[in-house]
Amino acid sequence: MTLTLRRLAGAAAMLTMAAPGVALAQTELRFTCYGDGNECEVMRELLDRFEADNPDITVALDKVPYKAILESLPVQLAAGEGPDLARVTDLGGLHPYYLDLAPYVDAAYWEANFGDTQDWYRAGPDDQGIYGMMTQLTITGPYINRTLFEQAGVAVPADDADWQTWAEAAREVAEATGTTFPMALDRSGHRLAGPAIGMGAKLFDAEGNPAVVDEGFSRMVEMFVAWHEDGTMAQDVWAGQGGAAYQDAAQEFINANLVYYFSGSWQVARFEEAIGDAFDWQVVGVPCGPAGCTGMPGGAGLVGFKDTAAPEAVAKVIDFFAAPDVHAELITRTKNVPAHKGLAEKGLEYPDASPQAAAALQAWARQVPKISPVAYDLQGYPLNRAIFNAIAQRVTQAIVGEMTVDEALQRIGADVDEAVAQSKQ
Fold it and tell me: Of 128, 157, 203, 288, which has fewest CB within 10 angstroms of its CB?
C-alpha cells in the first residue's frame, strides 16, 4: 500500500471512529427558562456539568420573563415552534404538548420522589405518564415589612388571624409610618384562589366539575374589590393591567412602599438579595377564613415537549436534575422548598441563606400542612388556567368599575363554562 493510500485509509478510519461522536455532538437542545430569583443561573451552572459528562448533548438556555412563559410559550407550542424543554407553571394546561418521560427514566424512583405532584401534569386519573419534575414547591402567602410594624408600634397579628385583622393592622401601620400602600396581592387568579378557598369557596361540584362561584368565593371577591375602593390594596397592581396579564408588587415591597404583600415562597431569594439589611421582613401565616388558612400549592416544573427531535436527550437532561445530589443543590442554592419527597423527609439546610431567608423558608414549610385539599384539586385541574384567567380579568373589571361585582362573578362562571365546553369539542 502506498503512503498516499495508507494516509487515506487512516483518515477514513478516523472519520469512521469519529462519526458517532460527530453525530451525537449535533444534539443541541433549546431550554426556555424563567427565574423568580437565581434559578436559571444555577441551572446553567449545573448544565455545564451535565454537558461535561455528556459531550454529545449541548443545552442552549434562554432566560425569559415570566410573562413570556404565560403568554408567548403556549402560542409557540401551538404553532409547533416551541423549545425542547422549558420551566413552566401552567402544569395542567400545557399537558397536550408534553413529552412522556416514562420510557426513558426510572419510573419507580420518580414515583417515589415526585409522585405527589405528577397528577398536576397529567390529563386525568387514567393517565400514568411522567411529564415533569418540580424545580420547586411553592406556597402562596404573605410577607410583612417587620420594621414598619415596629416603627408604628403595632403588634403583628397571630398566625391564625383573619383577613379583617390583617387589613386593619396594615392600614394602621401605613398611616403611622406614611407608607404608600397597606396591602397588595399579585395580579393572578392563582394568588386570589387560596384566600377564596379559605373563605369557603369549594370551586368544584360533587362530580368534580368546576363550579367556581359560590358564597365563599363571592365573599372574598367582594372584600377584595372593596379594599381597592378604600385604598387598602395597591390599586395599580390589578387595575394597571388588562386581560389576564400577570403583575406582581415585589418591587414596591423591596422599596419599602408596602406593609403587607401576598405573594409566595418563590420570592425569598429575590428579597434576600434585593432588600439586604435595608429592613426586616418576615413570612407570616396565611389569613384565616371560615374554611381554613390556606394558600395555593404550586411551583415551576421542568418539562420536555413531544415535538422535540431528541426525546431521549431531553429526558436525560430532566433526569439529571432529578438526581438527589443535583436536586438538593438546585433547591438549596435557589432557596426553595423541595418537592422531592426523599429530600423533604430528610430535611435540607441552606448554608448560604441569611438568617431572615432561612427563617422564611422554615415558615413556608410550616404552611404546607395548612393547604386545603380543594387547593390541591385546583392545582391539578387540567383547565385551571381558564379559571385563573377568568378571575384575573373579571375581578379587575369590577375593580376599575367596568362592571359590578355581581356582573363580574356571573362572567367568571360563564367564562369557565365556555372553556370547559370548548375543551370537549
Answer: 128
Among candidate residues 255, 223, 250, 221, the one with its CA nearest the CA of residue 237: 250
Q: Specify the pLDDT at position 19.
A: 44
Pairing of strands 138-145, 27-33: unpaired
Output Rg (C-alpha) for the chain, integer angstroms: 24
103-152 per-position pLDDT tens digit? 999 999 999 999 889 989 998 888 999 999 999 999 999 999 999 999 99
User: Do the strands 281-283 and 181-185 form a parallel or antiparallel pair, or are they unpaired?
Assistant: unpaired
Q: What single letter denotes the amino acid at residue 348?
A: L
Pairing mode, strands 297-298 and 281-283: unpaired
Q: Which of 260, 290, 273, 247 is nearest to 142 (CA)?
A: 260
* 277 and 328 both lie in a single domain: no
Helix-helix angle 324-334:39-53, to 10 degrees: 150
**From residue 103, how far is each of 31, 108, 313, 318 by CA, in Å?**
21, 12, 12, 13
pLDDT at residue 25, as a whole number: 52
Contact (CB, 8 A) for 140 and 366: no
Distance, in Å, from the CA atom of 295 to the CA atom of 292, rounded to the nearest integer, reads: 10
Same domain, 284 and 307: no
The verdict on 273 and 291 lying in the same domain is yes
Which residues constitute the domain of residue 123? 28-137+298-355
pLDDT 10s digits, 237-294: 999 999 999 999 999 999 999 999 999 999 998 999 999 999 999 999 999 999 999 9
Q: How many residues does the chain have?
A: 425
